[in-house]
TrEMBL record:
Signal peptide stretch: none
GO MF annotation list: methyltransferase activity
Protein name: rRNA methylase
Lineage: superkingdom: Bacteria
InterPro entries: Alpha/beta_knot_MTases, Ribosomal_eL30-like_sf, rRNA_Methyltransferase, SpoU_MeTrfase, tRNA_m1G_MTases_N
Keyword field contains Lipid biosynthesis: no
Length: 291
């Protein structure tokens, strides 16, 4: 049955479809994306497989082109996604199983990849609700950590993630994978310098909290009312000193063992959930039904 459906799709979208081999220029392009060997101004990313495409399906992110290996597409779920993404792009490429396997990082790939263009939200156009929570990442270097933080922010209900003093590409394949689709749904705003971010936060009446292992105040017991921003820095250099020149509050997560700090992704997850849970508890809401 799925073979018949795939044949129907091949006929329906034949004007868009092109079969290509390993030497085709599109293969060079997608390998560059997968190896993160693209210009810093290039905002494209690669998504692979059913689960990631289901997340991408929920957005209006533009799709530049898709790659399919027909021999690897067998479930009804996969065929339905293939049809949707064939419809969302003007460029469809069919490749052989051996070629697809070399591109994929999976032992049992689903047989399709899409290349899309990630949006960067303009700070001037970002609309935040009252009592908002944003997480600011200052100078983080690990794309895996940033992806993990995006995933936690999506789960906690954070309104936006601000990448300040960027040291890693937010469309890095490792970041896309670690975010588990959150990079598609959580608004991301980028600031080149800390002061730009500080001025934006001040202009929107945010209380600014710095996650600092040297802080005297614990993250528990704070008010967190109104617009709240939590700033985390890189594990190597910490938060830029510029932040400490302004009206901010530092806080820490108690360490009861021999280690002096947590991985920044873990710390961000704890703080994001603590602040968002506090606000929802104040509003009479609770996470209980979602756990």
């Amino acid at each position: 049955m799925n073979t018949l459906r795939l044949n129907h799709l091949l006929e329906k979208y034949q004007r868009k479809i092109k079969r290509i081999g390993p030497q085709n220029e599109m293969m060079t392009d997608i390998k560059s994306l997968l190896n993160n060997a693209i210009p810093t101004t290039d905002r494209r990313f690669v998504t692979e497989g059913i689960w990631a495409h289901q997340k991408l399906q929920m957005t209006d992110i533009p799709i530049e082109y898709c790659l399919f290996c027909l021999e690897m597409i067998y479930s009804n779920e996969a065929v339905e996604l293939v049809e949707e993404f064939m419809n969302r792009t003007e460029h469809i490429y069919i490749i052989a199983p051996k070629i697809f396997q070399k591109l994929s990082d999976r032992d049992d790939p689903d047989g399709f990849m899409s290349v899309g263009i990630l949006p960067i939200h303009d700070p001037a156009e970002l609309v935040v609700r009252d009592d908002a929570v944003v997480v600011v990442l200052d100078g983080l270097e690990s794309p895996g950590n940033i992806g993990t933080i995006l995933r936690s922010c999506d789960g906690a209900g954070v309104d936006a993630v601000m990448i300040c003093n960027p040291r890693a590409r937010y469309n890095n394949p490792k970041m896309i994978k670690a975010s588990m689709g959150a990079v598609f749904t959580v608004p991301i705003v980028q600031f080149e310098q800390p002061l730009q971010c500080i001025n934006w936060l001040k202009g929107h009446n945010f209380r600014i909290y710095l996650a600092d292992a040297e802080a005297k105040s614990c993250y528990e017991g704070n008010d967190y009312s109104g617009n709240t921003a939590i700033v985390l820095g890189s594990e190597r250099y910490g938060i830029s000193r510029e932040w400490y020149n302004h009206s901010v509050q530092t806080l820490t997560i108690p360490m009861l063992g021999s280690c002096d700090s947590l991985n920044v992704g873990v710390a961000a997850s704890i703080l994001a959930y603590e602040i968002c849970l506090h606000k929802r508890t104040q509003e009479g809401d609770c996470y209980e039904n979602n756990i």
